[in-house]
Protein: Orotidine 5'-phosphate decarboxylase
Organism: Cudoniella acicularis
Amino acid sequence: MHPLTSYLRRLIRHKRSNLCVSADITNADEMLALARAVGPSIVVFKTHADILSGWDPDPVHGTGAKLAAIARKYLFLVFEDRKFADIGFTVQLQYAGGVHRIVDWAHIVNAHVISGPDVVRALQEAADSWGGEEINEDVGDAQESGSDTWKLPSKRGLLLLAQMTSAGNFLNEEYTSNCVAIARQYREFVMGFIALKPLNSQPEDDFIVMTPGCSLPPEESLDDSEFVPGSEDALGQQYVTPKELILRGCDIVIVGRGICNATDPSAKAEQYRGVAWQAYEERPKLESGDDI
């Protein structure tokens, strides 16, 4: 099992949360404020660094370093939703270089495999060359549930985009099957998938699944900031309730605008956390055992 997968599953149990918040906002300071607001309720915080104005590239005091510090304080992993999809040489530069230096602060990234399996190999080489250190996390500082020191693994992890929630996308069953095959080939780096359902089918599979397009029904919303489940937005994103996604067997639900556009993002994140966790506790255990 990938070390970050093990860490994340432990974090899910500890925080009683299956929630990832997607920072669908365009200002770096507002992104950091959102991370602080939702930090207690989440296990993953998803960013889009290339849409943020005001990004400070300083490796010690800049935006990435500040986000990493917030993640340590509130115990969550940072997932940069970069969707790498180029040749190996280019994705290495995109991952480890430029203004953002993603590898320095993002525990998890993701990639399409449209360019073939070498995109995964290239990203793994860049991650292995990064050379971060394990960090001791004092759980007692972040959560009022007793003190317990964990080690945040130094390894970086990758999710493959095996399925998408956008209408008319081209990720068909053959493509998904190829994604799974590539993940098995590089399981020491690939943690799992962005997908609509679990894709583990062999005894040794232990891949996690994170699923976007998550929205509460209007009658449950605190402020009507969501899109209606069963519908899609003006650009084809399709929505499903957190309960349905968790009952399908998904490990983590990803919520963006329903929390980012809320009048109180902290309260909204806690509502999503509670709904998703209740669904997890209600769902039957998978045949292979408790996936979390």
User: Anything to note?
Assistant: The chain has one domain: 3-282. The domain at 3-282 is CATH 3.20.20.70 (TIM Barrel). The two ends are 13 Å apart (CA to CA). The longest strand covers residues 77-84.
